[in-house]
Specification:
Blueprint (H helix, E strand, L loop, with lengths): L3 H4 E4 L3 H10 L1 E6 L5 H12 L3 E9 L3 E4 L2 E4 L3 E8 L12
Antiparallel strand pairs: 1-2, 2-6, 3-6, 4-5
């Protein structure tokens, strides 16, 4: 079995993520590309000690970028929007 810490890579601090957290009690995290919703749910519940209601995953393809003459591609990544149950709170800045 994989480590829980290899499934959850890092929290994503974006404007959209902040709005989701404040208005709908959802958190936005980057997860391993080969992880599924059940693994993400279990990892979030055990690492952060909160109850998860729902998990939605998004596969984001890397964009093509130019640096002068050369063309490169950013790496693909997978994001998860985790909905917490009512009464649960998770704050990455202050700790849980």
């Amino acid at each position: 079995m994989r480590s829980l810490y290899s499934i959850i890579k890092k929290p994503l601090f974006t404007e959209k993520g902040s709005n989701l957290k404040e208005s709908q009690n959802k958190i936005l995290v980057e997860v391993a590309k080969d992880s599924n919703k059940l693994e993400v749910r279990k990892a979030v519940e055990e690492i952060f000690k909160v109850k998860v209601e729902k998990v939605a995953t998004i596969n984001a393809e890397g964009k093509w970028k130019r640096h002068g003459k050369s063309i490169g591609r950013r790496s693909d990544r997978k994001k998860a929007i985790v909905t917490l149950k009512k009464g649960e709170k998770l704050d990455f800045i202050e700790g849980s």
